[in-house]
Automatic annotation (TrEMBL):
This is CzcE family metal-binding protein. It comes from the Bacteria. Keywords: Signal. Residues 1-20 form the signal peptide. It comes from Cupriavidus campinensis.
Amino acid sequence: MKANKSVAAALILSALSISAAWSTDKSKTNIGDDVAQHVQRQAVEPAADQAAGQATRVGSQAAIFGSQVPAGTASRTVALPAGMKYINVASGDTVTFRSGGQEATWRFAESIRGTTVDLGVLLPGMPNAQGVRVYVERSHLFTGG
């Protein structure tokens, strides 16, 4: 008798969960479309989401080294000719980079040990920036020198 009641309860619960799942496609998402439309749209747009995610990762990696600032704040300007291999900067330095008619200004973060980064990571849209190593000196702020 107990076994019959357990089986009956399991069947009822199973039927309830199936009906809830069956109607899920009619539920609304937080942007107002139903679940079936949402899933179809996500299947079409994964490449755009991947590109946005990659840009976010690159942006967050660049933020470790400082940030882009308005052009009038630079202490010096550096031209980026084709074939340039590296540039040395001081921690906390603000530099305007010029290449191919474009200009961007970057303020380097204070670095405890000194660091290096590809300028193409900091300024991905800047011509001739890819492959140029930026050597950031160790900060005098943290070393007392």
